[in-house]
């Protein structure tokens, strides 16, 4: 998993509440078990017409936001079914941070496990960031995880909270496998001792 330290990029505004995981990545794209290739289907039913053309007015189709790294949205982001493909699709598109007043629990946890920083802020502060994000290509904000600060286009800062353990994992690029591999010496030692004490288990 890539480390998350300081992220500077264009923020795309999606001022919608209850953005569910089927909106983020529709069910017909869930057959794959790969984390790559899903970005082109992110928000598929909002980005494309039934014949495959782009919906001109959708935010991620606008030239200023095609390379957005940050998404600012409304309450209860990521609700609905518990599909890990949702953060995979966001990440494959290039989005590393989602800012909203609240998140569905499973989606929120899956973001951290996949290298995305979900930030919860009071609605008043999210509204300010939505306003910043509305500036198109000038909607560049910086998210500093170490300092736990968001810096807007005009230099104003907003503080955010994050669980210390999850912060450590993101800063160091540690998913569940990475955390386990940090204990590889202890695991090897345990396995060696077990083979000596209970050799029949190795048969």
Give a written overview of the molecule.
- The protein is an alpha/beta fold and 203 residues long.
- The protein is built from eight helices and seven strands.
- It has helices spanning 21-24, 44-47, 85-93, 105-113, 123-133, 164-172, 176-181, 184-197, and strands at residues 6-14, 70-73, 97-100, 117-120, 140-144, 149-151, 157-159.
- The protein has a seven-stranded mixed beta sheet with strand order 4-3-2-1-5-6-7.
- Strand 5 (140-144) and strand 6 form a beta hairpin.
- The chain starts with 5 loop residues before the first strand and ends in a 6-residue tail after the last helix.
- The model has no long low-confidence stretch (mean pLDDT 92).
Brief characterization of the structure:
It is built from eight helices and seven strands, in the order E-H-H-E-H-E-H-E-H-E-E-E-H-H-H. With 203 residues, the protein is of the alpha/beta class. It has two domains: 6-172, Aconitase, domain 4 (Alpha-Beta Barrel), CATH 3.20.19; 175-203, no CATH class.
């Amino acid at each position: 998993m890539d480390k998350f330290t300081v992220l500077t990029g264009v923020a795309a505004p999606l001022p919608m509440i209850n953005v569910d995981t089927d909106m983020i990545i529709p069910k017909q794209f869930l057959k794959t078990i790969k984390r790559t290739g899903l970005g082109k289907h992110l928000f598929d039913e909002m980005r494309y017409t039934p014949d495959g053309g782009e919906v001109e007015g959708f935010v991620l189709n606008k030239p200023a936001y095609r390379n957005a790294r940050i998404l600012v949205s409304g309450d209860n982001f990521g609700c609905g079914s518990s599909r890990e493909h949702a953060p995979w699709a966001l990440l494959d598109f290039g989005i590393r941070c989602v800012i909203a007043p609240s998140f569905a629990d499973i989606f929120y946890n899956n973001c951290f496990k996949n290298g995305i920083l979900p930030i919860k802020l009071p609605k008043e502060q999210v509204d300010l960031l939505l306003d910043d994000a509305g500036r198109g290509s000038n909607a560049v904000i910086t998210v500093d995880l170490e300092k736990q600060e968001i810096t807007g286009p005009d230099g104003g800062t907003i503080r955010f909270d994050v669980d210390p353990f999850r912060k450590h994992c993101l800063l160091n690029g540690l998913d569940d496998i990475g955390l386990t591999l940090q204990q590889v010496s202890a695991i090897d030692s345990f396995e060696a001792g077990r083979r000596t004490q209970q050799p029949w288990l190795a048969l």
